[in-house]
Amino acid sequence: MDETTEELRQQRDALQQKANELKEQRNTLHTQSKNLAEERDAINTTIRKVRNDIAEHKKKRDELNERVKHAKLQRDVLNEKCQETKKQIRTIERKRSSTTGTNLAELRRQLNTLETEQMTKPMSPQKERKLIETISEFHAKIKKEEELLNQDPKLKKALEEERDYKQQAEKQHINVEELAFRAQQEHEDMITLINKLDNLVKRVNEVQESIINTKIKADDIHREFITHVDKIHDLERKLASSIDGQFKRKKKSEESSILHKEANEIFERFKRGEKLSTEDLMALQKAGLL
C-alpha cells in the first residue's frame, strides 16, 4: 500500500464521518419539522372550533339583542299607555275638584311640603306637634277625597288600568334587563374567544414560519450531504483504480520473478551442455540472458 492510497482512504473516511453527521442533522431537522407540522395542525383544528364558537355566541347575542329591542318597544308602549291613563285620572280629578271645590293634587302638594318641612327644619316641640296635627288633617282630607273619587266608576276603571299597565311595564322592564344581561354575557364570551383566536393565529403563524425555516435548513444540509456523498464516490473510484494498479504491478512483478527463475534454470542447463528447445531459447531471450 503506497502513500497515495492511504491519503485517499483518510480523505474518504473524513468525508464519510462528516456525511454521517450531516445526515443525522438533516434527520433531526425533519423530525422537528414533522413535530411542528403536527402542532400546527392541532392548533388549526382548535382555531376552527373557536371560530365556530365565536359565530355561535354572535348569533345568540344578536338574537337576544333583537329580543331586547322588541321588549323595549313593548315596555315603552305600556309606559305610554300608563301615562295616558294618568292623564285621564288627573282630568277626572280636576273635574271632581271643580265640582267639590277641593283640589286633590294641591292637597297632595301641600302635604308633601309639610312632610319635608318636618324632616328638614329644626323646630320647638310645640311647633312640631302642631305641624304633625296639620299633616294628619291633610292625610284625612286626602283620604276622604280619594274615597269619594274611587266611587266614580270611570276613575276606578282608570286606576285599575293604570295599575295594570304599570305592572306589565315593570315586568317588561325586568325582561329587558334579563335579556340585555344575557346578550352582554354572550358578547363578553365572544370577545374572550376572539382574543383567544388572535393568540392561536399568532402562534400558528409562528409555528408555520418555524416549519419553513427548518425545512430550508434541512434542505441546505441535505445538499451539503449529497455533495459529500459525491466526493466519497469519486474518492472510492480513485481508490479502486489505485488498488487495481497496485494489483497489476504486483502480478506483473510476480510473473517476472517466475520468468527469471525459470530462465535461470534453463540457463544452468545450457551451461551444462544440455540440449535446449525452441521454447527454452525464447524464455532465455525474454529474460535477457541471450
**Number of structurally distinct domains:** 1
Percent in strands: under 5%
Order of helices and strands: HHHHH
Distance between the termini: 35 Å
Tell the overall outline.
Answer: rod-shaped
- The structural class is mainly alpha
Low-confidence stretches: none
Number of helices: 5
Note the main sheet.
none
- Helix fraction, binned, reads over 70%
Structural notes for this entry:
There is one protein chain. By secondary structure, the chain is mainly alpha-helical. The chain has one domain (3-236). 93% of the residues lie in helices and 0% in strands. The protein contains 5 helices and no strands. Helix 2 (104-120) runs antiparallel to helix 3. The longest helix has 119 residues, at 153-271. The radius of gyration is 58 Å and the shape is rod-shaped. The mean pLDDT is 83.
Short summary:
93% of the residues lie in helices and 0% in strands. The protein contains 5 helices and no strands. The mean pLDDT is 83.
Ordered list of secondary-structure elements with their pairings:
Blueprint (H helix, E strand, L loop, with lengths): L2 H98 L3 H17 L4 H26 L2 H119 L6 H9 L4
Highlighted features:
single chain; 290 residues; mainly alpha; 0% strand
